[in-house]
Amino acid sequence: MIAVVDYERGNLRSVQKALECVGAQAVVTRDPKLIAHAGKVVLPGVGAFADCMENLKRFHLIAPIVEFLSSGRPFLGICLGLQLLFTESEEFGVSQGLNVIPGRVVRFPRGLKVPHMGWNTLEVWRSDCPLLQGVEEESYFYFVHSYYVVPYDLSVVATSTTYGVEYASMVWKDNIFATQFHPEKSQRLGLKILKNFACL
Question: Is 199 a catalytic residue?
Fold first, then answer.
């Protein structure tokens, strides 16, 4: 069973429906015990970084998420769910994240239209990443974001994307996978990534 974390942020139902579309059993939940003991966990997210961290605290979800991350079971962060894994974000002042992956979340440079919204391509850095099997170089995925992650260790970068600057659009560290793009909105190839995740 895949637990989709409900902390009142993100396209929860669309993520759940996309997972069900590829044959996975998915449940939207904020039950800490269910999240801690799920077979897989997806952390989606839309909104401001600090507000989302506050909601995770308010619903007592930080401890079960951290427990799950250290368990070795597959985890997928989507959009803000990627950014929350990092040490800190500069959005509306410095806010602390889960610090699972060392690095920062920074705003696109001035002069670029934000949010970065629409279809853009991936440059594959880690072709051995299980979620990228069947995904070709320069494939298009759907993005909506004004901030991007800067990992301190570039070995975790699975793909990059260019929008004014080249940035990490997908990371992979052991059992932890996370995308800046929205696979649930990325049609056939997005479903392919979710299918690959569900089959881990």
Answer: no
79 catalytic per annotation: yes
Active-site choice (52, 91, 129, 184): 184
Reported as a pLDDT band with limits 50, 70 and 90, residue 10 is: confident
CB within 8 Å of 83: residues ≥ 6 apart: 45, 49, 77, 89, 97, 105, 147, 149, 180
Q: What is the CATH number of the domain that holds 122?
A: 3.40.50.880
Q: 52, 79, 129, 145: which one is catalytic?
A: 79
Tell me how far the alpha carbon of residue 111 is from its chain's centroid. 26
Range of the domain at 61: 2-198
Return d(Cα 42, Cα 8) in angstroms, integer: 14
Indicate whether 88 pLDDT > 90: yes
Q: Number of structural domains, the chain?
A: 1
Phi, psi of 2 (to 5 degrees): -105, 125
Share of the chain above pLDDT 90, in %: 94
| pLDDT tens, position by position, 157-192 | 999 999 999 999 999 999 999 999 999 999 999 999
| Catalytic residue chosen out of the listed positions 91, 116, 182, 199 | 182
